[in-house]
Design goal:
By secondary structure, the protein is of the alpha+beta class. The chain is 26% helix and 19% strand. It is built from eleven helices and 19 strands. The strands form four sheets. Strands 7, 8, 9, 10, 14, 15, 16 and 17 form an eight-stranded antiparallel β-sheet that branches. A hairpin with a 5-residue loop joins strand 15 and strand 16. The protein is globular. The chain starts with a helix and ends in a 9-residue tail after the last helix. The N terminus is likely disordered. InterPro entries: Mycoplasma_peptidase_DUF31, Peptidase_S1_PA. This is DUF31 domain-containing protein. Pfam families: Mycop_pep_DUF31.
Amino acid sequence: MALVKKLVLTLVTIPSSAVGVYKLWSPNVSSEPDFKFLTEGMEMTQVQEDAYDIHRQTIEAESAGTLAHQSQEIDWQEQKRLNREIAEKAFKKLDDYSFRIFWSCGIGTGWILDYEIPERADKYPTTWYIATAAHVINGYKFAENPYKQSLPSSVEETQRLRRKLAHRVNSYLPWYSRLSLWDHNTTTCDVSNKYGYSDLNLAKSSNGAELKAEYGGWLNGRMEEPKLFYAAFDLFEENPELGIRANNYKDFAVLEIKFKEEDYARRITNNFADHYRVESTDAINVFADPLDVRYDTEKIQQLEENFFELGYPKGNKGKFEQSRGWDEEREEGYKLLNDHSGLHHDTNQQKIRGFADGNKGIYKVEWNGTRRNDVGHFHLLGINKKYRLEGGASGSLFTDKDGNLLGIHGGGGGSSSTIVPLRGKERRGDHVIKSPKFDLLLGATGQKSSYREQVETYKKNTWLKARGWAHKAKN
């Protein structure tokens, strides 16, 4: 005890006017530290030195812990800033591609897959190929089927319905064309189902109101009647070894939209064809390899990559407002989800993060009266449910930070979304998600149809064809 008292008394007698004093700083101590460094001419006893060392070490330890915490916080804030920068670039590109799809019986999100190159170089494209989820346009009454696709309703049925209105079509259709496909969707859907007249339009948040895009584009003379150019139905013959059942499909479709005026096409696509030319190196890579080709299973299990989605869910934001799948609190996007529930996998199936079994049939799709069966896998992604895009986002693109396509929005609930991949590798054997190799854009061995096959069969001179059916990357 005496020693302690002596120590305290001795320490407090050290003059504060010592030459060359340097203060130790720590956010956890007061601005005036208990100890000061001493220069020449000031000597301490051994007891003083020992006490000083103990105190110095305590302060250094506290300071190190605090500084480490601050460093982690600074690193985290810096990472969030970088995440925001990356996200802004990704969302800008997704915005270039994406639209709200209005049609008589619903809404969804579509995106520019391709466009037809005009014969004259000084002309802007008027024929566009808009991709979406097939279920977005399920029920649409197409009056023709020039591209020999499986339609959601047969041409014969559509024509039969239209004949019911033949005696008053000239007065009825002008009234119908003035109905908002958003505000009067119940009425427009009733007309579509009763009389076979479906209509459709595209809108972007930047110009939807200006172009009055909530009204039908066909009946208001902005476009020719839309056609179904490609739909991914009846892709394969049955094959239990690859998990292929009859009436198989992937939830993907491509519309052909022909605008009547070049200027309107330019405005509604926001000059897309001027920004993304044949030699462009900044387009979204719609030909990106499947995730399980780019990474092995071990890497996928650890993958913390952000995935980005921009779409047009219905929500409360308004008819032309877009939404981003982005957690504003954590500054991160969608992540691969580890959901191993029986909803997405069989009991003994190998579990791969972000992969779920399409054969589980969680979505019951009926197309033109026939129940359809999914092929292969779908991706399962998660995000804070406050930021997950819901109804109306179906069909929207998912990409990574480098613009590689993961797939399109198929559905979801709560904090998870299901993503339809446009390609996948073959998987067979016990305890795996069985799948044929498939590629909805380029085709694959044993696959009966693809978007590329449609373009080549019908001799379309399109942007993707001119690019050699491959992504062009910066050197």
